[in-house]
Amino acid sequence: METKEAWHLTLVVFICWLAVFVRADAEDDIAFSAGESDTTKFGQAKSVRYLLYDVNPGEGFNLRRDVYMRVTNLVKELNKEEPWVLVLPPWGRLYHWKSPDLEQIKIPWSTFFDLPSLREHVPVIEFEEYLKLRGEPVIDEVYYLQGFKGGWTKWEEKMNITECNEGTGFVQDEEGNWYSWFFGYEEVYAKKFACLSYMGHATFIKPFLLKNTIGRCVMLPRAEVLLHDHFGNSEYWKARRSMVFAKHLRDIGDEFRRENLDSTDPEDKTELEDWTKMKRNHGDALGGPYVGVHLRRRDYLYAREGNLPSLKGAAKQIKKILKKYNLQKVFVATDAPSEEFEEFKNYFKKSKVYRFVPSKEIKEKYKDGGVAIIDQWIAAHARYFVGSYESTFSFRIQEEREILGFDPDMTFNRLCPDNDSDCEKPSIWKIVY
Predict the structure, then answer these.
(1) Catalytic residue annotation
(2) Which range is the signal sequence, renumbered to this chain (predicted)?
(3) For the segment 163-178, what is each residue's pLDDT rounded down to a tens digit?
């Protein structure tokens, strides 16, 4: 590795950590201060440490975004004691990313999200940046999170190094090094591996990381085991607001809105600002003159049988919304095959129904995940949004609309099954600043 490049990466890590240090210090005057009996001098800086995590391979894109929020707030707490940088796990091989013509591994976070915005919350770097900084493909300690064997009869926060409950995917070679999938990087190995049975919130593991680990980089596979400390509070929303989509994806979505849906930010009152300063009231956003729909199909028809409408039933509900709000256009984000979408469109005789179909270049460059984000971005800017039952894809759109400042009545809605026209609405999680 060239010395100049190594110096640059080190500077990036220092700057992004320093930014969070200053912000934390501004928010909490006692952050980083020593206790009365602590003789540590301010100038005695500690070496930067790295936290890496992974999620159960079966979990989808939008649940992984939720796990990121749990881990990022853990890193924020760690930085109150010593400098930690979050290493972003590369994307790839997700269940719903099924395009056979795409190589969808080792995808950096910058493909999908705006890294400077993430760094306004905690210091983060890409996995490849970490490898360059270390100069060797090594992770010092891995603690594979798992539930306690036999389950639990009462809730209590606890953890313990135990035998592994199941196959972990980690194997040890003759030299004592541990190997696993590691996001498709075959040369990467870990020096130490153990299973950690865990029940607790994300920050409950903080003392363990500070006092029981010494490695420069610690990895936590199955990080979905860590629970939100306070779901829906201001810290949750700071993490969520920092997850701004990459500008190149927003630009594609904005172009589609402008050309097909008569929708622009100035007219829709949906201008995006620096999230650390942006504070919207409910009803500030108007939205484009169209109905945004998340119409979940495929495996969901079986997984949520009885809670989703037929195509005809969904069209009937949407036409009522169009009439109520005097709208003529519908944007549909859906995993439905093309023949189902055409059937759905045919139920609309007086309205235009749109779906984002990526060019070959866009799909190759931004993968299935990028296309999903473009869908979410367009749906989030609609005058009225209606989603699918218990879908994290719909939930992420609802969060985006909360950030933009939409009226909750125009956001927290779902498509009802054909036999229940007055089904229960989704839970309303309003933004907290």
Answers:
(1) 59
(2) 1-26
(3) 999 899 999 999 999 9
